[in-house]
Amino acid sequence: MQTIILYTKTDIGKERTTNEDSVASSFINSQSFRNGISYGVLAVADGMGGHEMGEVASEIAAKKFIIDVAENILINTADNIDIKFEEILSKAVETANKEVWLISKNQSNRIGTTLVGAIIANNFAYVVNIGDSRAYLKNKKSIIQITKDHSVVQEMLDGNMITKEQALNHPRENLLTKALGLTEEVKPDFFKQDLKDATLLLCTDGLYRMLNDKEISKTMNGNIYKSANALISLANKHGGIDNVSVAIAKYHD
Fold it and tell me: Residue 117 CA to chain centroid, in angstroms?
């Protein structure tokens, strides 16, 4: 029998005085209901908005997302309703966005946060993202970036205005085109990935700006606990210019 295993970790990095990243995860055991399926939920958020407020935004978003997903899965399984993962993810993002938006409206400086989250079920990962925090799929042969950044630099890449090499240290790399809390409504992206013999990695830009895909792939050794700590340690060794956070999920026999 396969079991879902999850691990999350966040670190302040080497240059920041506060940690504006947040991580959250939860197991949802529905064995008492008819479908008998267990679920894993995880989220990573990177806040913005100045001293302390970015931390508030990311923490609210990550926690609200996890709670809303869990509640809706439990309601649906109790009522024997087929799980519509994209719908549940969409509602959770909407809930998180409203919470951050309400706080943001009362601030002199607008606050916001990225969010990348996932539901693990039936050997699949159902992923949602808004902003430039990312999801990767690591298998035995390679690592694949699942999500696409909502950023000015990504739009420049898509328009062939810059190269991938130029994008790595572009002066506009922190400018987002989408984030939670900046507008009353948001439209995230959704993805579905097979987790058979693979590992899901969610992370903030503090990781992938310090490590390239090859380095990330090489550091993920199959043990999610050791992988998470090794990724953060290596990002800090390479400079640690930002907060760095990871959330990892896989199935284990």
Answer: 4
CA nearest neighbour of 242 among 201, 213, 210 = 210
CA 202, 11, 137: angle at the middle one, nearest 5? Answer: 15
Tokens of 215: 């380095």
> Is the pTM value of this prediction over 0.85?
yes
First to last CA, the chain: 6
Q: Six-digit token pair at 248? A: 């990892």
Q: In sequence order, what DSSP letters do the residues of 33-44 get, joined into one string?
A: SSS--EEEEEEE
Name the pLDDT band for 31 (thresholds 50, 70, 90): low
Q: Which residues lie below 8 Å from residue 55, measured CB to CB, with a gap of 6+?
A: 18, 19, 20, 22, 47
Contact 124, 192 (CB under 8 A): yes
Give residue-wise pLDDT tens across range 115-147.
999 999 999 999 999 999 999 999 988 999 999
Report pLDDT digits (tens) over 215-245.
Answer: 999 999 889 999 999 999 999 999 999 999 9
Please report where in the chains the tokens 């992370």 appear, as a residue: 203
- DSSP sequence for 54-81: HHHHHHHHHHHHHHHHHHHHHHHHHTTP
Give 48-64 pLDDT, tens digit per residue: 976 568 999 999 999 99
224, two tokens: 């999610």
Higher pLDDT, 35 or 198: 198
Structure tokens at 185: 């409504």
- The token pair at 103 is 């706080």
Give 61's Cβ-side CA count (13 Å radius).
38
**Bridge-partner residues for 1, per DSSP?**
none
212 with 145: CB under 8 angstroms?
no
> From the CB of residue 105, how many other CB atoms can be counted at a distance below 10 Å?
11
